[in-house]
Amino acid sequence: MFASIIEKSIENALNKLNFGVVDFVVEHPENEEFGDYSTNAAMVLSKTLKKSPMELAQVIANSVKIRPPILKVEVRNPGFINVWLREESLAEALIKVIIQGDEYGKSKAGKGKTWLIEHTSPNPNKAMHLGHLRNNVFGMALSNIWEFMGIKVIRDCIDNNRGIAIAKLMWGYLKFAKKDENTLSDVTYWRKHKNEWITLKDLKIRPDRFVDDLYFKGSRDFEEFEESEDIVRAMVAKWEQGDMSILELWKTVLEFAYKGQNLTLKRLNSKWDKVWRESDHYKMGKELVLRGVKKRVFKKLDDGAILSNLKKYHLPDTILIKRDGTSLYITQDIALTKLKKETFSPDKMFWVIGPEQGLALKQLFAICEQLGIGKMEEFTHLSYGYMRIKGGARMSSRLGNVVYIDELIDLAKGEVLKKTSDEAIAEKVAVSAVKYSMLKVGRTTNTAFDFEKSLSFEGDSGPYLQYTYARCESVLKKIKKLDKDCGVMKFNEEERRILRHIYKFSEVVGKAGFEYSPNFVALFLFELAKRFNGFYNSHSILEASSENKKQFRGLITKATAQTIKNGILLLGIEPLERM
């Protein structure tokens, strides 16, 4: 809100002193004792002018015009120029929060940009587990932030819905989902007698858990029995040939997976603008690679395999097509990247994928540049740290090493229901606890979900932010009507601490978006909630010493509620008016 004004004031001072263009930054000091803004302009200049940064800082500070919103400018070691804001300017910023409402914090910082982000992409042979959760929560929060900054965002995912893994699931269904174990495990027989297999209507467990079990059994059977391996491999070949019975079985098993996964995605309020099905483009990748061979971008080995040529990128080479002519994941990814580029024309493309895929993505980006699909700088891998459950013994023993998203939310919800009987509120609080626990830490930081801390109404948690918002709303209902023209009076320290923080929201959102770090928003909101609750516990709002004071404190409450609401919505957390 004020950053551009402060930056311009420093630039004017530098021009006045004939210092020319200086590449300086304006940011907030970690300690508010050192002002509301600080710049390193003098320290940058000292390197080129070979002068004392403290002396230069004082000269620049003396040249800054003291006018609203600036209250004063001071110099601190080793050469920082610190700026304080006027109280009336802070009060005016507070009113702007209320006037702008749900639009508060929005900017045009990303106007004209189109960014595409691939996130989550669960395979349709498993229920969604903890590995998908951090990916999803991060991808959705970051894309929300980008949109708030004026960026056109396309959220997409890839559905790897074909190949050997899906064929194992199909075999698992044919062999292990029969109502009578004596029924023939044959796809042609199945097509005519589907009622002899378990259907969606017959299920007593979630369909994605059912799929999980069948995939495990089908995979084990594939490994143990040569006959089963032959059947599975034949399924892959027949699928590619368009065998109607195989295609019908394929659609049937995928429906189980999609139904279950969609239940999970609905709980997380997750979405995609485009879902790419591998079955639609799997041949395209092979064609692109073969074209690359003709252009001598890639090389064909003596055994028929096709190898990349990434020497100039200082990357190890990778096989693009196997010697038997079959494609690999990277082959499909080349095609998909081209499709994304041609369909949406994004300025930047992002992949939210775990760190173990780092090398593969670097290779993909280099190959796409070689093929003219896009430039390396247009492609970004957003990796993230791993997550585990603190006190994992609390998860049901039948899960083994797999932690399902829904079971985690259900366990959190069970804890919340000990404090409230409202199912809907308990669900929203549980989801907020899970999401915030991942978003409050840096993207690449490994973290552990702690039930006690994550569900606390008094600490650094999603429920604490929801609780603070509900507290604000409760106060506002009792005030009923607010007067934005109540007049500004001298602030007490707790009021001042809120006003010196709340105006930073838009800047924090921008920083979070351009640095791919939603945790900046989470940290900002937690600090705001702490400051408001400190104010609330120290001063009466409804029984203030005068009507004007009551109104002003009501405005602080309203601005706090609005900022928390706007912020937690970016994180994918639902604000609650009561708890």
Automatic annotation (TrEMBL):
MF (Gene Ontology): arginine-tRNA ligase activity; ATP binding
Cross-referenced Pfam families: Arg_tRNA_synt_N, DALR_1, tRNA-synt_1d
Keyword terms, alphabetized: Aminoacyl-tRNA synthetase, ATP-binding, Cytoplasm, Ligase, Nucleotide-binding, Protein biosynthesis
Catalytic activity from the UniProt record: tRNA(Arg) + L-arginine + ATP = L-arginyl-tRNA(Arg) + AMP + diphosphate
Residue ranges constituting the DALR anticodon binding domain according to the UniProt record: 465-579
Coiled coil (residue ranges): none
Gene Ontology terms: cellular component: cytoplasm
E.C. designation(s): 6.1.1.19
GO biological process, one term: arginyl-tRNA aminoacylation
Subcellular location per the Swiss-Prot or TrEMBL entry: Cytoplasm
Gene3D superfamilies (alphabetical): Arginyl tRNA synthetase N-terminal domain, HUPs, Isoleucyl-tRNA Synthetase, Domain 1
Entry keyword annotation includes Cytoplasm: yes
Name of the featured protein: Arginine--tRNA ligase
Source organism: candidate division WWE3 bacterium CG09_land_8_20_14_0_10_39_24
Underlying gene: argS
